[in-house]
């Protein structure tokens, strides 16, 4: 039996990309899934597909910038499945632009989703995990959380913050809560589609020509979860072989 079988896993940003790939993979391994995102049509289709494949999945429409909605997500998971074993904080945005472009609205949205969304997830899940004396928080950062690049200063700042939060969870775990920070490079997702700055968009699209499949990160998430309880995989960086950044 897999270490994943029967574990209750909450995934934000589950309607596409890394979240969807992880949901499908974990569903096949017997996890009980609570899937969250803003796009209900995609969530419904994904949940139905997992159930049709013999998996257990439910969904909730959630915007991670809404603290009460994130708390309700965890509360509903406990009501549905009785516990929360793993939280995958996956929801994120990447509207790259140079600082001189002054896209303050985009900066604020990134801070709200990439940092505060992760914090809301941690705040909601930790009390339940403390009561259980076990749990696992997986945060999706980025290679941009390890190295700053021109045109990505604010995005990099948010992903450095995610790494800091992941380490904070580890240091404050009291031997109960596992913490995993996963930093993908160029992965085939919708992230580059929302860049409004022309030069930054062109640069990202060139980089993403080498993008690897989202299943690569889903495998990493699966690997971290399926370790025995006394093993904590704290950090993984996953890039295309050709990527320098």
Q: Describe the biggest sheet?
A: 7 strands, parallel
H/E element sequence: EHEHEHEHEHEHHE
Structural class: alpha/beta
Q: Kindly report the spatial arrangement of strands forming the biggest sheet.
A: 3-2-1-4-5-6-7
CATH architectural group: 3-Layer(aba) Sandwich
**CATH homologous superfamily (4th level) name:** NAD(P)-binding Rossmann-like Domain
- Low-confidence stretches at least 5 residues in length (pLDDT < 50)? none
The top level CATH class name:
Alpha Beta
- Average pLDDT metric: 97
Q: CATH topology, what is it called?
A: Rossmann fold
* Count of separate DSSP helical elements: 7
Give the terminus-to-terminus CA distance. Answer: 38 Å
Please bin the fraction of helical residues: 40-55%
Number of E-type strands: 7
Q: Give the percentage of residues in beta strands.
A: 15-25%
Overall body shape: globular
User: How many structural domains in the coordinates?
Assistant: 1
Give the radius of gyration. Answer: 17 Å
Describe the structure.
With 245 residues, the protein is α/β, with parallel strands linked by helices. It has a single domain (8-235), classed as NAD(P)-binding Rossmann-like Domain (Rossmann fold, 3-Layer(aba) Sandwich), CATH 3.40.50.720. It is 44% helix and 16% strand. Strands 3-2-1-4-5-6-7 form a seven-stranded parallel sheet, sandwiched between helices. Helix 3 (67-81) packs parallel to helix 4 and helix 4 (104-132) packs parallel to helix 5 (153-171). The mean pLDDT is 97.
């Amino acid at each position: 039996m897999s270490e994943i079988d029967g574990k209750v896993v909450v995934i934000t940003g589950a309607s596409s990309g890394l979240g969807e790939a992880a949901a499908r993979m974990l569903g096949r391994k017997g996890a009980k899934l609570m899937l969250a995102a803003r796009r209900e049509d995609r969530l419904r289709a994904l949940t139905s597909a997992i159930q049709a494949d013999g998996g257990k999945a439910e969904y909730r429409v959630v915007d991670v910038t809404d603290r009460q909605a994130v708390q309700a997500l965890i509360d509903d998971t406990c009501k549905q499945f009785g516990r929360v074993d793993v939280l995958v904080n996956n929801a994120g945005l990447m509207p790259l632009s140079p600082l001189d472009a002054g896209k303050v609205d985009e900066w604020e949205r990134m801070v709200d989703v990439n940092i505060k969304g992760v914090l809301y997830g941690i705040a909601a899940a930790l009390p339940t995990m403390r009561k259980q004396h076990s749990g696992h928080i997986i945060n999706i950062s980025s290679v941009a959380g390890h190295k700053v690049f021109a045109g990505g200063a604010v995005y990099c700042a948010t992903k450095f913050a995610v790494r800091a939060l992941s380490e904070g969870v580890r240091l404050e775990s009291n031997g109960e809560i596992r913490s995993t920070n996963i930093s993908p490079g160029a992965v085939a997702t919708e992230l580059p589609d929302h860049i409004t700055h022309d030069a930054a968009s062109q640069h990202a699209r060139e980089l993403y020509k080498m993008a690897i499949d989202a299943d690569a990160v889903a495998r990493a998430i699966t690997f971290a979860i399926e370790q025995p309880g006394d093993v904590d995989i704290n950090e993984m960086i996953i890039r295309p072989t050709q990527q320098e950044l």
